[in-house]
Amino acid sequence: MELELSTPALLFSAITLLMLAYTNRFLAMASLIRGLNERYRENPEEVLLLEQLKNLRKRVHMIKNMQIFGVVSFLLCVICMFLIYQEFKMAANVVFMLSMISLLISLFISLMEINLSTKALNIELGDMEESFRQSKGPFKFMFKDSKDPSIKS
Known about the structure:
The chain has helices at 6-42, 47-85, 89-135. It is mainly alpha-helical. The protein has one domain.
């Protein structure tokens, strides 16, 4: 396959959009961590926070790695374009392949981070469900396994 200048250039838009999405995830997580920090200062014995903190630490590390591999992919794309321009075809092919591998690694880490993210949301949902069950609040109809005979499935 003949590698042309337009081929790695196509990755530019994809990688920059991906980096924007990663940055948005990072900013949302930073906001969440600040909110949890405030909650912790109000009630340091809350057990739920400990589970969330462990999860968030892993996710921050993963997002950092996602961004690193995304930036490496972007840099390799630029290098590839330079090599094509200079007519170093074999080197350009190798660098383009490395760029694609870096992008794949970034996407794979992103997939794992999404999985962890949903686990964190399930922790929150479990806590809210438990609170509603205990208080028999206005949302008790949502829980089919409730012992309340007035609730119909």
